[in-house]
């Protein structure tokens, strides 16, 4: 089912295969987010918000609704949570931690988006995921019905599942951008890129450090699955009930399931920016083309630096402009990329 064989005695595929907990927040990860705020957030926030917010669905283990990191978004009605588990298990709690971490990474990257949290697992064991295929399918259909712009999935299987694939293809054809984690299988030839990251309709995301160097546990890249973004040593929210003393309620994690919500958040940020109005020279007239997996994939490819066979996404390559004409230059860059596709 999963992208790689768990370590001896372990049943938590998320921790072993897509997500590694522990260590200190890396300095390069801190700097990456500092640069994101000083470049991308600065440019995006300098334009008035017009129209609806970008909508991002997160398929994961739920969310700690009470966590301080989410209170501003909750107060603005920007988080909706729904459980697709058995009756009585709510969507606004998280007994695993992974979903809370993932949701916070989306908001750290795109602070004004609206999140749709779909709780599709509780503990993250292989047995649970084998039995919860219908939960994932229902969550994809629900996200599609909510007219989300993006679905991010930090989950993976060894083999394709026809029901999940059909739901994803339907979402794709309705203009929803799909992201999924590549896996942390390393160079293991038996279990390369996991499903659904390995299908054409989904943007596959690998992990890198804050300097753009690919993570050692990435599976081998392919021509269509070689995008990477920050996923090493990243701090984000963790359920308060899973702590005993630590006051900041954050945990550090690494892996492609950390990188995936960051990539999804960056896509949401770009769509939010490109959809805003302005003077004739400060708009992207064809911005709706960005609401498609193939267009976002190609836009990301234009924002990358090649590192050891992977294309490392650098937000500053699009947003590092200053001065009175910065919106004209950023919008012009996006428009030129779209025209070249």
UniProtKB/TrEMBL annotation:
Keyword check for Protease: yes
Active-site residue list: 60, 98, 257
Gene Ontology annotations of biological process type: proteolysis
PROSITE patterns in the cross-refs: SUBTILASE, SUBTILASE_ASP
InterPro entries: Peptidase_S8/S53_dom, Peptidase_S8/S53_dom_sf, Peptidase_S8/S53_subtilisin, Peptidase_S8_Asp-AS, Peptidase_S8_subtilisin-rel
UniProt entry keywords in alphabetical sequence: Hydrolase, Protease, Serine protease
Protein name: Subtilisin-like protein
Source organism (scientific name): Polyplosphaeria fusca
């Amino acid at each position: 089912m999963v992208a790689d064989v768990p370590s001896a005695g372990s049943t938590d595929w998320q921790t072993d295969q897509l997500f590694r907990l522990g260590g200190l927040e890396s300095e390069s990860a801190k700097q990456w987010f500092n640069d994101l705020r000083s470049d991308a957030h600065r440019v995006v926030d300098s334009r008035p918000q017009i129209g609806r917010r970008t909508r991002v669905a997160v398929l994961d283990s739920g969310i700690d609704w009470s966590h301080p990191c989410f209170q501003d978004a909750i107060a603005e009605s920007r988080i909706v949570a729904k459980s697709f588990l058995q009756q009585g298990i709510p969507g606004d709690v998280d007994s695993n931690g992974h979903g809370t971490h993932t949701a916070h990474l989306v908001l750290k990257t795109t602070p004004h988006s609206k999140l749709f949290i779909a709780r599709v697992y509780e503990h993250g064991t292989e047995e649970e995921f084998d039995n919860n295929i219908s939960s994932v399918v229902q969550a994809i259909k629900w996200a599609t019905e909510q007219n989300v712009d993006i679905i991010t999935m930090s989950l993976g299987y060894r083999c394709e599942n026809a029901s999940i694939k059909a739901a994803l293809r339907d979402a794709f054809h309705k203009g929803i951008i799909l992201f999924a984690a590549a896996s942390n299988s390393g160079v293991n030839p038996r279990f390369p890129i996991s499903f659904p990251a390995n299908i054409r309709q989904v943007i596959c995301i690998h992990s890198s450090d804050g300097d753009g160097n690919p993570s050692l546990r990435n599976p081998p890249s392919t021509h269509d699955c070689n995008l990477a973004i920050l996923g090493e040593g990243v701090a984000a929210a963790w359920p308060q009930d899973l702590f005993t003393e630590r006051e900041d309620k954050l945990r550090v994690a690494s892996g492609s399931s950390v990188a995936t919500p960051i990539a999804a958040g960056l896509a949401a940020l770009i769509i939010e920016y490109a959809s805003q109005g302005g003077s004739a020279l400060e708009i992207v007239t064809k911005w709706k083309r960005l609401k498609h997996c193939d267009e976002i994939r190609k836009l990301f490819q234009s924002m990358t630096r090649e590192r050891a066979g992977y294309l490392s996404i650098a937000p500053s390559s699009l947003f590092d402009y200053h001065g009175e004409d910065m919106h004209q230059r950023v919008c012009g860059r996006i428009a030129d990329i779209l025209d070249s596709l």
